[in-house]
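**Discrete fold encoding**
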Amino acid sequence: MPAHDPPDPPDSVESLSGRLLAGQGHRVRLLGRATVVLALENAVREVLAHRLGVEDPDLAEEAVIETREAFFRHLAGRGRPARSLTEAGLEEILAEARRRLERSRDEARERLAELERQLDEQRRRIAGEEESRRRDLDRALDPERSDLAAELRRRFRAAGLEEPRHQRLLAELTGLVFAELRAASQQVAELERARHEEELARAERRIARLAASLETAERNLRRLSEARSLDPGLASIYREVQGLADEDDLADLKREMLVKIFEANLRLRQRRRPDDE
């Protein structure tokens, strides 16, 4: 009489697969090591970006590399258990993220204060330049005080043009010359004013961008402070993997299956003989 295999334990991968099949009505392919590693890497990126607010791509990639290396060390039979390695690694990543964000925040604060000081100086300098230019123009365009008007009068006298009709001609000529000068001066003043406004606008945009960066750093630090500890167990690593949304009726079962697959892979690896490597 042929021997029958013992029934699968209720928490085994096979049992979970059957339960998942019953819930979804289609086949489920067990995950190989490469697929598990990919899921692990994606999970680390998801957790860092969406749960912990870590936006530094270099830091995220370091976290992925460290987690993957810890995973392979465990598969090779070295290091601490995967649960401890994973949580310790992510906790260290959290601490490093906090340190980086604090440095970024402090640097942003210092730079913001410096830019605001420079903007105040720039405004005072521009105001002083415009006031000086206005005084110079007022003098230059005043027929009674202008050097140009005085030179016109001198030349009329030198030419003997001092009769009333000559004086009327001088006044008319002076008016035309100074009208043109005023128009040209206004154009120059408008161009200078536009240039100054653009300088101030650029400085204000830099300050606004830096203030936004500072606000982001402060917000991320608050989120990190609220994340007092990582969720225990391997299931926390997969909690936000794409396809395991909390609103999915089978989300808990899927998470449990992923963890069991991961643990089954570890057990299979540990039972392999050294010459099977």
Observations:
- Residues 107-228 form one domain.
